Amino acid sequence: MKIPLLDLKAQLESLRNEVIPALLSVVESQHFIMGEAVGKLETEVARLSHARFGVGCASGTDALLLSLKALDLKPGDEVITTTFTFFATAGAIHNAGGRPVFVDIEPGTFNLDLDQVEAAITSRTRAIVPVHLFGQMVPMERLLALASGHGLAVIEDAAQAIGARQRVKGEWRMAGELGTTGAFSFFPSKNLGAWGDGGMIVTQDAALATRLAKLRTHGGAKEYDHEEVGFNSRLDTLQAAVLLAKIPHLTEWNAARRSRAACYTEGLAGVNGVTAPVTHPDNEHIFHQYTIRAERRDELQGHLKAGGIGTKVYYPKPLHQQSCFGYLRYPAGRFPQAERAAREVLSLPVYPELSDAACEGVIDAIREFYA
């Protein structure tokens, strides 16, 4: 049985009669840039995220970059984030004029170690960028208290976490809801994926939303009138139309991912050499990835590939070890949990259309390897 890491064609078959007409309506309108569907999607994503405003943009990377640009960082300003995440997080900090300050992760959840965040705050710190990695939120109550106590902005990197939520003081709060801004990605492989690139920023701040909308269109609220130097980062109408057709299914899809994750966790229990991911009890994880720790990880990945099972390593090299960040002078071993995770992690197929038989097939193949 061939089991791909992700099967977007299976999703297409279930949505064809909803998405294709939506695309054709945009083609008929010939309004491809910032058309009506963009505003509708901004409203829907803001509603989903319990935010007042949504600002569509060209990618999840730009959602971070625009949010950070709105902080008006000066040379030497520091922004704290995790070293174990996709490159865009730190790349956006650098490109916005900030200096990335990396911290290590919790070994179970792979998220920011908040003790290390607290220790990293200096007089130069301007913001914290928590990454809700693999679909699970960072503990926001403590993070927000840290940020508030030092007057820091919080930019939630929720690129992998749209629809994730967390109990804060007994109430469910959504990914993107609590920060200065929340940044989402609609890359095709995401839980809510476009048929190309796209991103969204959400915020509770009206003035900030207005400025972000200007920054995405060359720094102006109207054509040929530029109040500051911005970017060309508009969300295509075609992508917004695809996402509007998909978003009513997101809650169901996320629940299906949790079901597949539960299947893996139960089936891999007791397998010596495999450690399942940890879900914090206050979190509702959406499992953008189901990521195990595996002894002899590379050999296991080869064994699964030989059996037709797709896997991927997210991420093989922490950000502090990337050559472009050599100027930060972090030595090897500085962040041992992230470095260990990079040697051990392996993500398994966890998409909503994954069958029970396929899930069991992956478990059987892993058990066979460690037997």
Structure explained in plain terms:
- There is one protein chain.
- The protein is of the alpha/beta class and 371 residues long.
- It has 2 domains: 8-248, Aspartate Aminotransferase, domain 2; 249-370, Aspartate Aminotransferase, domain 1.
- 39% of the residues lie in helices and 15% in strands.
- It is built from 12 helices and 13 strands.
- It has helices spanning 8-29, 36-48, 60-69, 88-95, 114-120, 140-150, 206-215, 237-246, 250-268, 297-306, 336-344, 356-370; strands at residues 53-57, 78-82, 99-103, 125-129, 153-157, 165-168, 171-174, 181-185, 199-203, 274-275, 283-284, 290-294, 345-348.
- The strands form 3 sheets. Strands 1-9-8-5-4-2-3 form a 7-stranded mixed sheet, with helices on both faces. A 3-stranded antiparallel sheet has the order 7-6-11, with no helix packed on it. The chain has a 3-stranded antiparallel sheet with strand order 10-12-13.
- Helix 6 (140-150) links the parallel strand 4 and strand 5.
- The mean pLDDT is 97.
Give the SSE map.
Elements: H1 8-29, H2 36-48, E1 53-57, H3 60-69, E2 78-82, H4 88-95, E3 99-103, H5 114-120, E4 125-129, H6 140-150, E5 153-157, E6 165-168, E7 171-174, E8 181-185, E9 199-203, H7 206-215, H8 237-246, H9 250-268, E10 274-275, E11 283-284, E12 290-294, H10 297-306, H11 336-344, E13 345-348, H12 356-370
Parallel strand pairs: 2-3, 2-4, 4-5, 5-8
Antiparallel strand pairs: 1-9, 6-7, 6-11, 8-9, 10-12, 12-13
Helix pairs in contact: 1-8, 2-8, 3-4, 9-12
